[in-house]
Amino acid sequence: MAQDIEKHQVNMMEDVEHSPSKVSTDGEFDTDLTPAEQKKLIHRIDRRLVVTVGVLYCISLMDRTNLSAASIAGMTKELKLGLPFNNSEVSRYNIVTLVFFTTYVVFQPPSTILVRKIGPRIHLSVITTAWGLVMLGMGFVHDWQGLAGLRVVLGILEAGFFPSCVYLLSTWYTRYDVGKRYSVFYVLGSLASACAGILAYGIMQMAGMQGLGGWRWIFIIEGTLTCVLGIGSYWMLVDFPEKAHLSWKFLTERESKFIIDRVNRDRGDAKVQPFSAAKFFRAGLDIKIWGYAMIFFNTTSVTYALAYFLPIILTENMGFSVGASQCLVAPPYALAAIVMYTTGWLGDKYKIRGPIICFNMILCLIGLPIMGFHKSAAVRYFGVFLTTAGANSNVPATMAYQANNIRGQWKRAFCSATLVGFGGFGGIAGGLVFRTKDAPAYHPGLYACIACCLLTLVIVCTTSFVFWRQNARAARGEIELEDSDEDHQRGFRYTI
């Protein structure tokens, strides 16, 4: 199964490379690069940038969500995580999942400022290596409080990763190139979710070596892998376009200029303005940003609920063995990878975003009731496929939606931070919706996930109507959309 998924990933990456963004062949801006050179350059950026951050995100997602695999591998029993926290209805396991997001949310806004100041190569490689060391430490904890403390530190370090990657990708690609790239980036994360259970099951077989339980080896082996990739990423990552020609000769100066001119032609915000707290936080006055953030909250509430509890649900609700549950996590995420890339490709081709999000949410709204209420375990497992595909596909779809409808570098940075910050709040919700006392049916958690999907449909329909009206007014010359003091480009239109 893992080999099939990897083969599919390679095919999708080749699709990205052989379906490059529209390049400048019409003379809309001056460039001395030939069309063949332009295509070759875009291919090279795809391979170097998208694949590198995608692999790192694969490790990031695996590290933050491997609690469920460790839980059924003996961690819950050894650390007594199933007991209630201070005689409340919340278990210690819920608390351990929750505390990660307290720091994960708080430290995201400063991270998007920091990545601009010191550059993505240093920023991302350092925090990746550091959280790998934290993962190693989790393999040696002796009580649940120590595990919770390390999860707090993990949240601080991982807070800088996802928003920085989202922001970095948005600075390199035009609005209708970014959907496929976000999809490939997140597809690699889905690969982690698909393979994490199988990998964890294999590592569990090391139980007893050096006197350590199988769940401890999950953290030790995966933490070591993270450290190795974190160190290597310093040489693989690239900087922002305006500095890319200085980063290990990745681009020549004229190639860097082509990328900047190309982005400027598309949305006019490639030039970076000096940081101003007023400019950065003023973006918070735009209600659209909070709408995108709420969509992301609804989406991640479902994705994190699946990530943290799916193996547990497969075991307790559907009656599969521990080994089968670890391995049965993979097929739904394989389907999610296919759906998210397909919808990302369609979104870029037809220049649509809202309908893609609605389609994904409808998949969830079909899958959740099946997953929760059908009498047959096999049919309920089919519902897991639809829910996992719809929820995970909506992550890159939402990222593309906000990236297409925001202009200005610091507004883009603020939007990335708030988007992913609300994703962290979604992680808190996702870590709490499936309560131990609701086992094995977990109906309240399913109702919460259904409510999130319905709210997303309402928000997308509302913003799409507003965008349609605003575009019509702009076409009549009544207003100028997303006007910014960072540039003077005119003619911007929202993507519906």
Protein traits:
MFS, 74% helix, mainly alpha, transmembrane transporter activity, transport, membrane
Q: What is this entry, summarized?
A:
The protein has 496 residues and is an all-alpha fold.
**At CATH's second level, what is the architecture?**
Up-down Bundle
Strand proportion, as a percent range, falls in under 5%
Q: In percent, how helical is the residue content?
A: over 70%
- By secondary-structure content and strand pairing, the structural class works out as mainly alpha
Spatial separation of the terminal alpha carbons: 37 Å
What is the number of domains?
A: 1
Main sheet characteristics: none
Radius of gyration: 22 Å
Order of helices and strands: HHHHHHHHHHHHHHHHHHH
CATH homologous superfamily label: MFS general substrate transporter like domains
Q: Give average pLDDT, whole number.
A: 85
How many helix segments?
Answer: 19
Shape: globular
Outline the low-pLDDT stretches. 1-27
Commentary on this structure:
It is found in: Membrane. 74% of the residues lie in helices and 0% in strands. The model is unreliable at 1-27 (pLDDT under 50). The chain has a single domain (41-475), classed as Growth Hormone, Chain: A (Up-down Bundle). It has helices spanning 2-18, 35-65, 67-79, 92-106, 108-118, 120-138, 144-158, 161-172, 178-204, 214-236, 253-267, 277-282, 287-316, 322-328, 330-350, 354-373, 377-404, 409-432, 443-475. It has 19 helices and no strands. Helix 5 (108-118) crosses helix 8 (161-172) and helix 16 runs antiparallel to helix 17. The chain is mainly alpha-helical.
